Amino acid sequence: MNLLESRTDEAILWFEKARSANPEHPLPHAYLASAYGLVDQIGRAAAELAQARRLASDNRYSSLARLRTVGPFGVPKIRALFEATYFVGLHTAGMAEE
Fold first, then answer.
1. DSSP letters for 50-81
2. In this structure, are residues 51 and 63 in contact, taking their beta carbons and an 8 Å threshold?
3. Between the N and C ends of the chain, which has fewer C-beta atoms within 10 Å?
């Protein structure tokens, strides 16, 4: 995945396509929120995070702690990549730790 490999600009292009293909699914919005956060597009990141929160039925995007409990983020090496990219970007987008 481009985001986990710090190819953020490429990731943004693909997540924008995914969002366009399925605008009612929260996941592309969450990934875009993270990617935009990583490239300091804070306004866009916050808007995508807000949309992901509206679309998710289980409140998973209310905090990083909550998201960590509901999502399987893989083996330790992959989980470390999520921590270094996805979660950092979401925090920058405005997602609280707790």
1. HHHHHH-SS-GGG-HHHHHHHS---SHHHHHH
2. no
3. C
